[in-house]
Amino acid sequence: QVQFVESGGGLVQPGGSLRLSCAASGSIFGGYAMGWYRQVPGNQRELVATITSGGRTNYADSVKGRFTISRDNAKNTVYLQMNSLKPEDTAVYYCNLYPPRSPANWGRGSQVTVSS
Fold this sequence. Notes:
It is a single chain. It is built from no helices and ten strands. With 116 residues, it is mainly β. The strands form two sheets. Strands 2-10-9-4-5-6 form a six-stranded mixed β-sheet, with no helix packed on it. It is globular. The termini are far apart.
């Protein structure tokens, strides 16, 4: 069972940047597409960005041009570089396989708060 641990969140002013990291346990990481997701309390979890095992990326329209997803298969880690952050980016950010395989794979997430 693969598990994910997200880190790198925090409080940042509008226009600022953060870099999230997601460490995966288990040996299946390199062969699977990965995604970053986010959730605001009371709302459904939404897909933010995806990256295939070969490095092809895709983004939600709301973050296109501001966020960059990347991965290091040797380190079993996926990253999300977030620039030009807006208050509406405030959420708990999660990583998981894309598409997710099991509810048990979700980690605790990393809180990102964009506020002045």
